[in-house]
Amino acid sequence: MFAKFLYEPEIPDPELIIRTSNEFRISNFLLWQIAYSEFYYTPKLWPEFTVEEFVKALEDYFSRNRRFGGIESK
Q1: Tens-of-pLDDT digits for all 74 residues of the chain?
Q2: How many angstroms separate the CA atoms of 32 and 26, rounded?
Q3: 48 touches 18 (CB < 8 A)
C-alpha cells in the first residue's frame, strides 16, 4: 500500500544502481525502492561512462548471487 504513494509507483524497483565518480552515497535516491538493488561503483565520471563500462556493470551484476535480503545457507 505504501509503494503506491511513491515516485513513479508503476515502474518496478531497480535491480541495479550504477554510481559513477566512485560516489558511495545514495543521496536519498529512491530509498524505499532500492532496498534490494545491487550497486555497481565506477571511478568514471558520467560524461566518461561508455557502452563498454555499462557492459562491465552488467557482467558484474549477472555474476552475483542475489539473496534479496535472505541469508544464504551453506
Answers
A1: 888 888 788 889 999 999 999 888 888 888 888 988 999 999 999 999 999 999 999 999 999 987 777 766 55
A2: 12
A3: no
